[in-house]
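User: We ran a pulldown and think these components assemble together. Before we commit to crystallization trials, I'd like a predicted model of the whole complex to look at. Sequences follow.
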Amino acid sequence: MGTATEQQVAPERSASPWWRTAVVYQVYLRSFADSNGDGIGDLAGLRARLPYLSWLGVDALWINPHYPSGGADGGYDICDYRAVDPDYGDVADLEALVADARRLGLRVVLDVVPNHTSDRHPWFAAALADPDSAEASRYHFAPASEEPPNNWRSLFGGPAWSRTPDGRWYLHLFAPEQPDLNWRDPAVAADFEKTLRFWLDRGVSGFRVDVAYGLFKDAQLRDNPGAYSPTLFGHGPEQAMTWNQPEVHDVWRQWRAVCDEYEDAMLVGEVCLADLSQVALYSRPDEMHQSFSFRLLKSPWDTAAFADGVQTALDAFSQVGAPVSWVLGNHDKDRQVTRFGGGELGTARARAAALMVLALPGSPYLYAGDELGLPQAVVPDEAKTDPIFFRSGGARAGRDGCRVPMPWNASDGVGFSPDGSAEPWLPIPADWDRYAVSSQVRDGSSMLTLYRRALALRAAHSALGSGEAVVSTQGDVLTVRCTGDGEVVRCVVNMGSETVLERTSGSVLLASAARVHDRAGTIALPPNTAVWLLED
Ligand code: NOJ
Ligand code: CA
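Assistant: Here's a predicted model for the assembly, 536 residues in total across the polymer chains.
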C-alpha cells in the first residue's frame, strides 16, 4: 500500500473552497481500528490507519460521535460535549489525529448532536432533581398527568414522551435515554457555541450536524397531523409539529458565522425531510455549507429512481448555490451490496453505483467498509445493541449489521484488534477475511482497487466531481454527462438485465467490471455495470 507522502492541507486555491468537491470518508470510530486490544475501535487505531485513507485518495474524514456517552444509541446520547469517551482515548489523542491527518492532506470533521443529550448529561440530572432548576428549562418537561401532552412518536418506536421518577413527562424524539433539548432557552445555544469553538480551536475542519432539521418543536406542542411511518422518505407534512420549524435556520446562521471565523471549517447537516427543496434551504449561503442528499441511499436499483434521485438533488441544491452531498451508504442503512441484491449481483451493482456517484459534481460521502464491498452482517440478536431493535420488540432488525468492525488482514481476528485481544464489540462474520484490505489491495479486480482508481481519476479530471452534470435515461440505461474545463466524461450505467451497446467518440477511462468490451468506438456494457467514457 506504500506510505503516503506527507503534505499539508492545501490552502484554498480559487473561489472554490475545499468542501464543495471533497470526498469525505465516514469513520465509524468504534468499528474502525482497535489499538489497545479491548475490542473497541479508538482514536489511536484510526490515527495508525490514516496512511490507508490517504492512499485510498479521500480528502476528509467524518468521525461518528467520539464523546462520553450513555451508550444507548451508538454514541448519539452524549454526556459531555467537550471531552472524549475513554473507550476512544482523550483530547490529546484527537489533537494528535488531527495533526497527523493534516500532514497527510486530510481534514477531520466531527459529529455534533444538538437535538438531544444523554439522560446522563449533568443538565438532565439537575433537571430531574429540581423541576425549577435552570437546567429543567433546557429540556421539554410537562406536568404529571394521565396522558402525554400530545401524540408525538419516537422515531425509534413507541411514544415520544416518558415519565420522570416524580411523574412529569419529558420529550424524546429518539430513545428515552435521549431527552430533547429546548432550543428556545438561550443557554442551550450558548453552550453549543462553546462546544463548536472548543473543537475548532483544536484544528478540526467542521461538523456533521445530527438531526439538523430538529431542535425546535412547535411552540404549543400541538398534535402531529399524521402518523410517523419509518418508510421511504418519511418526515413529511404529517410530522409538521416536530421537525423543520422555521426558527432552526437562525441556529445554522449563527453556527455558520462561527465557522467563518476559522480557516476551513464546514457544516454538513443531516436533514431528513421528504422534500429536497426544503433540505436545500438548510444550505443557503449563510447557513450550513452542505446538507446530505439521502435519495440514493433509499433508491432501488432502477433507472427512474436513480435518475430522479440525482436530478432532484442537482435541481434543489443549485437553487441555493450549494454542492450536493451524495450518500450511498452510512451507519443507519443496510450496506449497499445487500440493498442491491446481495452476493455477486449486489457487488456488481455497488461497483457501478460507486462510479456513478464519484462522477457527479459535489461532495460524495463514503461509508467505511463500502470500499471493501462489505455486505450487511448478520448480527445475532443477543449481540445487538441498536435501540431500534429493542424498541420495536425485534420487529425491525436495527442497524448493527452495518456497524460491524473493519477487516484489515486476512488472518485470525482480521486485524481489527492486535493479536490476543478481547472479542470485538460486535462479532465479525467468520468469512470476512475475504473482504480484508490485505486480500484486496493487490487484486486489480477488487472493490478496493476500483475505489482507489476512481478516486485518482476523479482528482485528475475536472469533468469528474466538479463539473456540470446532465442526467438522461434510455430504457435501462442511465447516463450522466459530466463536463468541466472543456472535458467530457460520460458515466453510463446499465441497470437492466441485457448487455447494451454504447457508442463513444473516445475511450474507456474506467469500468466497474472486466467484461466491458471496447471495439472501434462501440462499448459492450454487461448488465449491472458502469463505465466512464472520456469523449474526444
Ligand atoms: C441520526 C444518526 O445518524 C443516528 O445514528 C442516530 O440514531 C440519530 N440521528 C439520533 O441521534
Ligand atoms: Ca480500543
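The longest strand covers residues 477-484. That may be worth checking against your pulldown data before setting up trials.

User: Thanks, that helps.
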